[in-house]
Model the fold of this input.
Amino acid sequence: MFRLALVALLLAAVVPAIAYDDPADSFTPDAPDGEVRRNVLRLRYQHGAVLATNDFFTGENKTGEDIDRFHATSLEWGWQTDGSRLYHHIYNYPSFGIGLYGADFYNDDEIGQPTALYGWFTWPIKRYSGPWRLEANLGFGLTSNWQGYDYDTNPHNVAIAAGRTVYIDAGMQIAWEMAPAWDLAFNVSFTHFSNGGTRAPNSGINTLAPALYLGWKPNNPRPKAARTAIPEYKDNSEQLVSAAYGYRDVGYQVPTSENPDQILNSGYNIVTLGWQYLRQVSYMSKWTGGVNLNYDESNTAYQDPETFLPAHHSTDLIDRLTVAVFGGYEHVVHNTSLQVHLGWTILRTEYEDQLTPFFQRLGLKQHIGEHVLAGVNVRFHQFSRADNLELFAGWRWR
Done:
């Protein structure tokens, strides 16, 4: 259920047209451009590098060889905006939709052949004279069909423990309108796969690769990209309250005579209540700060040095409560936000081997109507190590 809710939120967040019309979108374009939606079909092929983020990729695997390359294919379906809403002009006529992804890491026994369902958003940052465009691509989704870590059958794969992970893709491309209904694009993208700390070990997989896109827009004519005059933005503020649920998995090494590297997984529930103040300073940008009250079972967890088994310093409620403050930035696309937070745990019962009090949060937030919102975050420490995923819902007022 957690995974189904996660992928639903990820897909919804990159399809901004399904959300309500913000009052700021009540405007009349200077040059309305016909039908509201034009379909887009895109095919992508990429071949590139697997980044060596852990020993599994540098020869500590069944083959004894580096895992340093992969290739992948994506099929994407979506919609080209036409200028009928304000955010179409703010983002220079973007396109968005859903996609299917399949990759081959040339090691099916230990990695599998992962497939992903994801949502995508393409932002034309610059339209040059003639048929050329500079664009940014973002994709978020859920990947399955991994061959995850197992200390008996797959003991080397410390990158992926679960059969499902989050899929995050970000890239830049040069696109060429080579015919009235056809585009060709050269893309370079970074892709990250991780389960967000829901199953250990989870060092993740990162790839960097060039790609070719072939795009077809069957219902012509294509938008003229005649941007209307965008009204000056007036700063506004809002507050919101939210509740979130997360799950953190810790892999404790429990050596045995049969297997000295055996890992025992232990999971911990995390519930967060939050308050935020946000100041929106442009159509694209919000600054925010807030406070979280957390119930975190992992705050009191440790590994018993004698039995090597998971244990707790305390099970009292007060010892599992923590208070954190945070600040950050949100990048806004219509009713969707990409949020980046930096936080500090200011109050907790201290024990040895706890997570650092300084943490980071990266996530997507989707507004559903004027007041309701929902989303998903990944919480990190050291800017790279995922602690847990958290699904959240909230209420805002302006």
Summary: The longest helix spans residues 2-13. Helices lie at 2-13, 86-90, 317-320.
